[in-house]
Amino acid sequence: MPTKTLIEAIREGLADEMRRDEAIVVLGEDVGVKGGVFLATDGLHAEFGDDRVIDTPLTESMIVGVSIGASQNGLRPVAEIQFADFITPAFNQIVQEAARLRYRSNNAFGCPITIRAPFGGGVHGALYHSQSVEAFFTHVPGLKVVVPSTPYDAKGLLRSAIRDDDPVLFFEHKKMYRSVRGDVPDGDYTVPLGKAAIVHPGSQVSVIAYGLMAHYALEAADRMAEEGVSVEVVDLRTLRPLDKETVLDSVRRTGKCLIVYEDNRFGGYGAEVAAIVAEEAFDYLDGPVMRVAGPDVPAVPYNHVLEEWFMPNPDKIAGAVRRLAAY
Amino acid sequence: MVTERKVSALAGEYGLTDVDLLAMYRLVALARSIDERLWVLNRAGRIPFVISGQGHEGAQVGVTYPMRHGTDWLCPYYRSIAACMTAGMSARDIVTAQYATANDPSSGGRQMPGHYAHADYNILSVSSPVATQILHAAGIALAARIRHTDQVAMAYMGEGSSNQGDVHEALNFVGIHKLPMILIVENNGYAISVPASKESAVEDIAVRAAGYAMPGVVVDGTDVLACYRVAREAIERARAGEGGTLIEAKVTRLTAHSSDDQQTKYRSAEELEAEKARDPLPRFRAQLQDAGVLTDARLEAISADVATTVDEATQYAEAEPDPDPATATWWVYHEDGPADWIAPWKREHRAD
């Protein structure tokens, strides 16, 4: 099976889907001849041309709003927001329009669009090229939110996102674009939305994570194994709809739950997971539901010392697992 | 009603027939009559809220009439009763939205009145944040161009909405790609209470079209046929691949912003009295009477038909059931709700 980077898997997923369905168009800033600032769309313009690979002005609200409109009239747009940090001008279109269109029209209109955006820190991106924005959107019924952590999942989940009849936000951790490699089959396969994966079985502590944090959780699990602590790592893959059953099954077996996310701790996505575990697995818990998350400063500072201070990492995760295992 | 394709001098001047002129008059009169009924129902405690299009009907019927209904797309706004009816929505469709009945085609009783939509007529559902729909129209027009469907998208909004950033982003994109989109700005001079002088640095919103390399046209929105003519020309340009048009129709707002607004607080009695002279309905009526198209007998017939239609729609909506709370969780996502579900409004015959 060929080994690919995450960005290669995403690029292939886009190209394969565009070959399969001519209703799919890609639009965003620099997605055309340049192929995107991270080269996620490299080669698509050459293969599919101006009509299907559309360079837009620097207008994020337009990128999403036009995608919504185009999806009403027979297209299946895949929008790229160049950095997740810049998605906020499109917040109104995503939250008020894309998310609510089906519900507010009593199913007369749907919104089959995919919005891809690179997110996350650890890349010297500072405040405005490092943000994790998933919690803004996982809060909103009507949106689906996906965060892949392996090339295999990235391609399979992207296909599912594009084929889905509802708006899907597809957040790609940019530190993983070229640092993460994995097996990606050539054929047409999909990974279903809404299904988590147990990526490291264990018996004493459940670590719930997604994106880059799933990799750091695996590193922490290996380290803790050397200390005799058996850690189970659950990679959520889709944040909304959340695969509650896989999370709760794991926690009911281990009795201990640590949630890891890179976003600010307060009100972050992990807070919802913690609430669900507390409500629905309380009788099985042998310790507090704990979190490792980004600190509550507005965003990731630039200087590398400050950035390292901000970012969750395998050390911090292992430390929390150690504390939790001691209960 | 006349059925022969008679062409009076007036109709001929606009490339229409007398049947068209009478149909347009009926739409203006019917939209007005429904609107007036809504205020009565609101004051009688039957419906909680009204947002009105009175004063805008002539412009809406005029610009919407030349569209290919059911093929072209409308992205309306909350005053678009007459536009939506011109595109195909019935009196029942409009009035069930006020009662928020289960079979209201706009939203199944989920949205406030004024958020008209109808999938059969390509009238896209709208939200309350203003001007978002202009980008949807641009996207619809993009898809029309890419798919070579020969469709036109028409978006409607007030001049208050014209200051939103989404309008700039939409028109810029339409201008770059010469997309078949037409933006109708219904300028009634007020954004709720704020007068145009405090909304915009320019008197005519249409001049902004120059920044998007498209024609900007100011038209008297009380002149139905003038509105028809500029829209037909814009539609022809759009279908010919020559791009979008910004049409600014100067209209008057004959009512308060909504049933929750008291416009005498910010508009003088003299101004309100003077504005009545800019009512498109009597103007259009007199124009058609002068042209010999609207005879006394035809006027009487149309008026009687309008009255009956409004009464019937009101009685119909009054008797229609509310949505079942058990359905309130349906259609957050496409997987929700029964697989074999058919929207209530599709199941029933809808009288005009």
Strand content of chain A: 15-25%
Structural class of chain A: alpha/beta
- Tally of separate helices of chain B: 13
Instruction: Pick out the low-confidence regions of chain A.
Output: none
Distance between the termini of chain A: 43 Å
Total strands of chain B: the figure is 7
Which sequence of SSEs, written as H and E, runs from N to C of chain B?
HHHEHHHEHEEEHEHEHHHH
Produce the secondary structure layout.
The complex is a heterodimer of chains A (327) and B (352).
Chain A: E1 3-5, H1 6-20, E2 24-28, H2 44-48, E3 53-55, H3 60-72, E4 76-80, H4 91-98, H5 101-104, E5 114-119, H6 134-138, E6 144-146, H7 151-163, E7 168-173, E8 181-183, E9 197-200, E10 205-209, H8 212-226, E11 231-235, E12 238-240, H9 244-254, E13 257-264, H10 269-280, E14 290-294, H11 304-310, H12 314-325
Parallel strand pairs in A: 2-3, 2-4, 4-5, 5-7, 6-7, 10-11, 10-13, 13-14
Antiparallel strand pairs in A: 1-8, 6-12, 9-11
Helix pairs in contact in A: 1-7, 3-4, 8-12, 9-10
Chain B: H1 9-13, H2 18-43, H3 57-64, E1 73-75, H4 81-87, H5 91-99, H6 132-147, E2 153-158, H7 165-177, E3 181-187, E4 190-191, E5 194-195, H8 196-199, E6 216-220, H9 224-239, E7 245-250, H10 269-275, H11 280-290, H12 296-319, H13 344-347
Parallel strand pairs in B: 1-2, 2-3, 3-7, 6-7
Antiparallel strand pairs in B: 4-5
Helix pairs in contact in B: 2-3, 2-4, 2-5, 2-11, 2-12, 3-4, 3-9, 5-12, 6-7
